[in-house]
C-alpha cells in the first residue's frame, strides 16, 4: 500500500508537470520545441507510472 501511494503521488506530480509545461509554452516562457520534447518525455514517464500502479495493485491482491 505504501509503495502504491508513492507511485500515485509521483503520477499526480507528473500530471502537474504536464500542466506547467503547457502553461510555460503558452506564456512564451519556454519555447515550443523544448516544451514539446519535455511534454513527450513526461508522457512516457506518466505511462510507466500508470502501468506500475496497475501492476502493483494487481500484485497486492
Main attributes of the structure:
mainly alpha; de novo design (two linked rop proteins); 61 residues; 0% strand; elongated
How would you sum up the global shape? elongated
Oligomeric state: single chain
Report the CATH architecture: Up-down Bundle
The strand count comes to 0
Offer a quick outline of the entry.
This protein has 61 residues and is an all-alpha fold. Helices cover 89% and strands 0% of the residues.
Describe the structure in your own words.
The chain has a single domain, classed as de novo design (two linked rop proteins) (Up-down Bundle). By secondary structure, the chain is mainly alpha-helical. It has two helices and no strands.
Question: In terms of topology, how is this protein built?
Answer:
Elements: H1 2-26, H2 32-60
Amino acid at each position: 500500500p505504501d509503495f502504491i501511494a508513492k507511485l500515485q503521488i509521483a503520477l499526480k506530480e507528473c500530471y502537474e508537470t504536464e500542466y506547467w509545461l503547457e502553461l510555460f509554452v503558452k506564456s512564451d516562457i519556454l519555447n515550443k520545441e523544448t516544451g514539446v520534447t519535455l511534454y513527450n518525455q513526461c508522457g512516457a514517464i506518466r505511462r510507466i507510472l500508470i502501468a506500475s500502479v496497475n501492476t502493483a495493485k494487481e500484485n497486492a491482491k
